[in-house]
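User: methylmalonate-semialdehyde dehydrogenase (CoA acylating), Paracoccus sediminis:
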Amino acid sequence: MKEIHHWIDGKEYTGTSGRFSDVFNPATGEVQAKLSLATKAELDHAVDRAAIAQVKWGATNPQRRARVMMEFVRLINRDMDTLAEALSSEHGKTFPDAKGDIQRGLEVIEFCIGAPHLLKGEFTDSAGPGIDMYSMRQPLGVVAGITPFNFPAMIPLWKMGPALSAGNAMILKPSERDPSVPLMLAGLLQEAGLPDGVLQVVNGDKDSVDAILDNPVIQAVGFVGSTPIAQYIYERAAATGKRAQCFGGAKNHMIIMPDADLDQAADALVGAGYGAAGERCMAISVAVPVGDKTADALIERLVPRIEKLKVGPWTAGNDVDYGPVVTKAAKENILRLVQSGIDQGAELVVDGRDFNLQGYEDGFFVGPHLFDRVTPDMDIYRKEIFGPVLSTIRAKSYEEAIGLAMDHEYGNGTAIYTRDGDTARDFASRINIGMVGINVPIPVPLAYHTFGGWKKSGFGDLNQHGPDAFRFYTRTKTVTARWPSGIKEGGEFNFRAMD
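Assistant: Predicted structure for methylmalonate-semialdehyde dehydrogenase (CoA acylating):
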């Protein structure tokens, strides 16, 4: 059985804890590897070594650091297919979706090549008589990233790119469920010229998370995962004086107005709701058609599209629409929530409970589900399902529809489909949600903007990637300088009082 260990000081580091976690092939349900889980002592060792390596890396000029990122981009493109295959085999994503996962992370690394510009400070000459003032953006030191299973390439790249480009060292704790790609990326960074010890990949479970939060050397923590854990990490990090940006769950609504192109809206809902088996924090999981006529016409279009979805392993070809969910426990939780929707009175229009893929009976596949006539009190509406389940809640008016999205405790992403500019502008202005799509179903910002949700979807003041990331991973130092002016003759041997 293959064993997966850690990456410390530029090479594989064999763990000594004797504790292991199973890494599954989600398509077959078989254990394909054993992952070594770090001890607190091993994590602390990685931090101590990173702190030593960071001093020289932080003193390296930003342009030289950017050149490492430039070479990293080339190497990721070179190994794109190899990375995607490893990602698909552990997560279960289709091959095109795995490449998309890597590509959206790669775009952030491309943005980080511009770090010298982003790290520039401000300067004021002659702030007073002979006095200049200027600010410097300096690295925090050692920072940590705790990343989720659903984007095992993208989110680690979102974390490591800005952190390293800003001159920090990073401790990365990826998900135990699909750890191989983060380790492969660490190897590529070393090949790109990153000094040993500047990026340490330490695999672990809650014990490692708590060790990160308790370690006094670590100055900041970035997290993506469920809301309860995001809130836990945020509060515990704050209690120990660390910066934290923690992103949690979501329940993303898409409002469909009566004037919308319903074929376009239906296509968007199918892709946004069922892509990656619904295991996306930006997936659309709630459709909100305005008016019964709109709802009936939308359901009529959705059903045949959903019934045609091809579910299968990533090895079945690029025409597979989505693959298995990541674990057996995830599958069981999805089906439990589906049953709760039935029990609480929702209408199950497309029933995927009996889905079975010949030859993959032990895999973690879940058929597509579509609910209609969902109400706000139902579990399938209140909770994040994280699976291929789309709920339809009918609204009588635009005001009722926007109110549903605004009243929900999550505020990650939302979208509206309409042909009316006034409605679109009103929606974008009023909605209390962090990322908004207008005729765009999954409004994930490009790398030079920032990604972040509101309400219980996000904890912390600064978002991921874009300019916010460089603000998060640096601190500002302001210098006030005064130099004697004029030409002096001879030496002076006394201190002059300041005027």
